Inverse folding.
């Protein structure tokens, strides 16, 4: 689009979340613990779904894939942010910056599509229960998961092929804890107005339809739940409430960062932390604490471990 890359900038400076050393140390301890919980929590869910025969169903297959995506969504930016709290100079290379842009958008858009797939799974389970295992067989589930990854990949590539060829010739300070597409564009030595619009439209093309489909799906589900038996309605409503909570926590920050930006620095940082750290943290907590089958699988895993230790 812009010919040969005219960049002379080989690295960028991340300004991070805070400047005070005491505040940075507190943030280091907090985000380190959160990241350990995120990784371990999502690994536990993936392990339970893989090893426990009681969880070998489409719903839990999709849940395991959500945990996998969440673990990597957090891992793209959080480890760098944690180590930067202990550094005076928060430097990231040009290639590292471009990698963050690519993987952030690839994984985030993949999760957006996967959440739609999970909503469709719940819709079929609640609204068409007699046809559930015919419609949501493992072949179709695998295809839908691959579709979510392919959507994320092509979306991220559409950003990368544009941003990697921008002329970066001077400013290199990014007022955030990671290389975010809108902030990197502002550093290019050119008028970025058209690129800002491109970013908003490109993110909106994937994000907004996904959000609308989710709202439609859960509207149908909740209407069906109201007409069902009290016992079934209570369980379905609990499941849907958890899913809706995840959807709102993930989509609302992304919409206000990439589709309808507010251009308020501190708010952008807060929203970025929210979807890159707290969403991957809340997903395993919500699905583990609120899901009876997962809790039973956890108990079986612990009992099997204790039995094996006792025999040895």
């Amino acid at each position: 689009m812009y010919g040969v890359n005219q960049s002379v900038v080989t690295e960028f400076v991340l300004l991070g979340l805070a400047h005070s050393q005491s505040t940075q140390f507190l943030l280091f301890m907090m985000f380190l613990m959160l990241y350990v919980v995120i990784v371990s929590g999502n690994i536990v869910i993936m392990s339970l779904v893989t090893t426990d025969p009681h969880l070998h169903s489409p719903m839990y297959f999709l849940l395991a894939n959500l945990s996998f995506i969440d673990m990597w969504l957090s891992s793209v930016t959080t480890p760098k942010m944690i180590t930067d709290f202990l550094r005076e100079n928060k430097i990231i290379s040009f290639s590292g910056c471009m990698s963050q842009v690519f993987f952030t958008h690839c994984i985030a858009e993949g999760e957006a599509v996967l959440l739609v797939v999970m909503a469709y799974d719940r819709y079929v389970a609640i609204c068409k229960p007699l046809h559930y295992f015919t419609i949501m067989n493992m072949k179709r589930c695998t295809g839908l998961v691959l579709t979510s990854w392919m959507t994320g990949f092509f979306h991220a590539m559409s950003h990368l092929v544009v941003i990697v060829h921008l002329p970066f010739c001077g400013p290199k300070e990014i007022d955030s804890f990671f290389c975010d597409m809108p902030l990197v564009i502002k550093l290019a030595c050119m008028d970025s107005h058209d690129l800002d619009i491109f970013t908003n439209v490109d993110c909106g093309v994937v994000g907004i339809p996904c959000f609308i489909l989710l709202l439609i799906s859960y509207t149908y589900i909740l209407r069906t739940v109201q007409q069902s038996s009290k016992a079934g309605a209570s369980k379905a409503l609990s499941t849907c409430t958890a899913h809706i909570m995840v959807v709102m926590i993930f989509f609302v920050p992304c919409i206000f960062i990439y589709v309808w930006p507010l251009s308020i620095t501190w708010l952008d940082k807060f929203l970025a932390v929210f979807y890159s750290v707290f969403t991957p943290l809340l997903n395993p907590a919500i699905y583990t604490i609120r899901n009876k089958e997962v809790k039973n699988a956890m108990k079986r895993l612990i009992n099997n471990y204790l039995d094996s230790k006792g025999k040895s």
